[in-house]
Amino acid sequence: MNRAGLFAIRDVGSLVHETSEQGTELKKTVGVTQLTAMGVGAIIGTGIFVVIGKGSGIAGPAVVLSFVLAAVACVFSALSYAELASSIPVSGSAYTYAYATLGEIVAWVIGWDLILEYGVSVAGIAVGWGGNLNAFLDAAFGVTLPDAIAKSPEEGGVFNLPAVFIVLAVTLLLVRGVSESVRANLVMVVIKLTVLVFFLVVAFANFSTGNFHPFAPAGTDGVTEAAAIIFFAYIGFDAVSTGSEEARNPARDLPWAIIGSLAICTAFYVLTAVGALGIASPDQMKDSDAPLAAALDQGAGMSWAAGILALGAVVAITSVALVILYGQTRIFFAMCRDGLLPHRMAQVHQRYGTPARLTVLLGVLIALLAALVPLGTIVELVNIGTLFAFVLVNIGVIVLRRTRPEMPRPYRVPWSPLLPLLGVAFAVYLMSDLPLDTWIRFVVWLAIGLIIYGLYGYRNSRLRRQEAS
């Protein structure tokens, strides 16, 4: 029996049944390889090409341990995502899981949070894409775009044309179809992993242990401080769960894709950190916006390779933008189908099999944000939003184990509730280190969301309409 009121819970069977309704049915066309590539595509972006420099400046060579520690902090939440994604194969990720375990009001809060998190993230990624495109054009051809069309008004430009271009490009690709999108992402993942393999080959061919002494100049405090920064280079595996409804075999493929993509990225992160320190010192990388290119230039004497690394960064960031925008559209789609947002936005295009209307709407809004607004510290909202989602997903596993012990679970988190509780603890710890301004912005956004829920979502909720009838 569902609880009435704000904490009404959606039945899992009902959620799954609604995925086959005429007009809002998504095509099941994605396999385990494409899902894993989505995870790798979402995770490996600016983090691998930028954060190594910042992390090594804090922890020194012990940044290698920081990468491992950050991966451990993520793995507990990844296991919880894997259990819920295999058990509730429905679009919406943490929003849907909260609706099935913690109630409608909690689901609305996390869904509203994720709309902001993913939207700001794509806008920030788009701005970073423009910067890396300029770096590639400079390294390869000695030209750069003028500030008037490469920066926001507050930064001395008119609008950020490259940011607008990449957002609209991935929007059109997502409208065209999920099969086309995942194929394009797979190609980009292969390219950026090839670029990283190129870096590793060069680094280990010129490897020296001299830069590893002293190993941990800032001690364990430096390792944990760097891990808190590096943690955010791993964010993205949760976007895989938004593809639940379009997976051909979600019970089998989603756990493999979520955990597998995290494992692949961890291996590349650690190897890249070791390789970079083998050819360059932390001091040579810490102040660089392109630390891997700086390592090749100053450490291996290969300045020409900077163009290759810049191209790798452009491709890497493109795939991140694609997967994160895909994730946002599926969360928005799930909320519209549930009636918490306008249901007509959940209509699937008859030809393309995608929620084309809402995809275009979100793409245009994000393009405007990326064109005109210098994101600055607002990007920290991505961090707090992700960690908040991690907390609720871990709690959701514990709650669903107690309330629905009989429910089929193709994948089960081992040693529950210990590992989910560890996932909560890591997320809360990292949230506690975020600036006060970030918390204020987060609370204001949630307050706006609660007003919208009270005026529209509560009255139009599909669950509440069903209870009334």
Secondary structure: elements and pairs:
Layout: H1 12-18, H2 32-43, H3 46-59, H4 63-87, H5 94-101, H6 104-141, H7 161-176, H8 178-205, H9 219-230, H10 250-279, H11 282-285, H12 291-300, H13 305-337, H14 356-372, H15 380-403, H16 418-432, H17 436-460, H18 462-468
From the spread of the alpha carbons, the general shape counts as: globular
Assigned CATH architecture: Up-down Bundle
Structural class: mainly alpha
Averaged pLDDT: 86
- Helix-strand topology string: HHHHHHHHHHHHHHHHHH
What integer value in Å does the Rg equal?
A: 22 Å
N-end to C-end Cα span: 15 Å
User: How would you name the CATH homologous superfamily?
Assistant: Amino acid/polyamine transporter I
What's the total helix number? 18
Instruction: Enter the CATH topology name.
Output: Amino acid/polyamine transporter I
Weakly predicted, low-confidence segments: none
Tally of strands: 0
Overall description:
The chain crosses the membrane at residues 32-52, 59-82, 94-111, 118-137, 157-175, 187-206, 226-244, 256-281, 301-327, 354-375, 381-401, 413-432, 438-456. It holds the Pfam family AA_permease_2. It is found in: Membrane. It comes from Actinoplanes regularis. With 469 residues, this protein is an all-alpha fold. It has one domain: Up-down Bundle (Amino acid/polyamine transporter I). 69% of the residues lie in helices and 0% in strands.
